[in-house]
Amino acid sequence: MPKIKTNRAAAKRFKKTKSGQLKRNKAFNRHLKTSKSAKRRRNLRNSTLLVAVEKKRILRMIPYA
Fold first, then answer.
1. In CATH, what class is 8-61?
2. What is the pTM of this model?
């Protein structure tokens, strides 16, 4: 069996936690921050876990994560 190619875009966006869940960064955090409240900007800084529905699809893209 040949090796499976990793989707590099997905590999840069998702990291696997020790418990096997996938970590991701939140969207809407690049620009136009003046219109967002301080609380919203603060919450956008933190990473979050990927929902279970998407996990199977993403793991197929990063097989060796």
1. few secondary structures
2. 0.83
